[in-house]
Amino acid sequence: MGKASKVVVSLALAATVLTSATACSLLPGAPAADSSPTPTADGTGAASKKALADYVESERAQIAKILAQYPALYNDVAIDGAVEESTGDGDLPEGTHSVITYTYTYGTERDWSVTGAELDEQIPRLDGACTRSIIPTMHTNGVEGSIAAVFVYGDVTADAQWTHTCVE
């Protein structure tokens, strides 16, 4: 992948994360911005699960915009959420986490030795989007407990070739 492609991937990644992360700053019916998360809540309560589901739906509403913005880059974008229990042997620390997963599928086969390295360079941007936008917005909208965002990239030949997880 040439320098021009690398710039397109970097810009697309940054714009995509910011488009989805800023689209739902405060959902209708969500708690006021000065609400603080319950530090001891584990995210398994009904209100927190509903807040997570609502947040995921608001993020999904951005998928058509993302695909239209980058028609030649992504074949598919999926956004899912779940409350997950972790033993700590993967990317999530031990405990219960409200997890939002952003899955991007490139429309063409990629050279993952190159694309993976380029995506690795974007980890600070992903982490910044998590700490400045995604996680605080999820808390503001009523998601309690530990929150994680998972970014998954694949292509038309393979689902998950590169992943990154940020946890508050």
Number of helices: 5
Helix/strand order, N-terminal first: HHHEEHHEE
Average pLDDT figure: 83
Q: How is the largest sheet built, in terms of strand order? A: 1-2-3-4
Total count of domains: 1
Query: DSSP strand (E) fraction?
Result: 25-35%
The beta-strand count equals 4
Tell me the structural class. Answer: alpha+beta
What's the overall geometry? globular
Distance between the first and last residues' Cα: 33 Å
Explain this structure.
By secondary structure, this protein is of the alpha+beta class. The chain has one domain. The protein is built from five helices and four strands; from the N terminus they run αααββααββ. Strands 1-2-3-4 form a four-stranded mixed sheet. The longest helix has 20 residues, at 3-22. Mean pLDDT is 83; it is low at 3-8 and 24-40.
Q: What attributes characterize this protein structure?
A:
168 residues; alpha+beta; 4-stranded mixed β-sheet; 5 helices; globular; disordered N terminus
Characterize this entry briefly:
This protein has 168 residues and is α+β, with helices and mostly antiparallel strands.
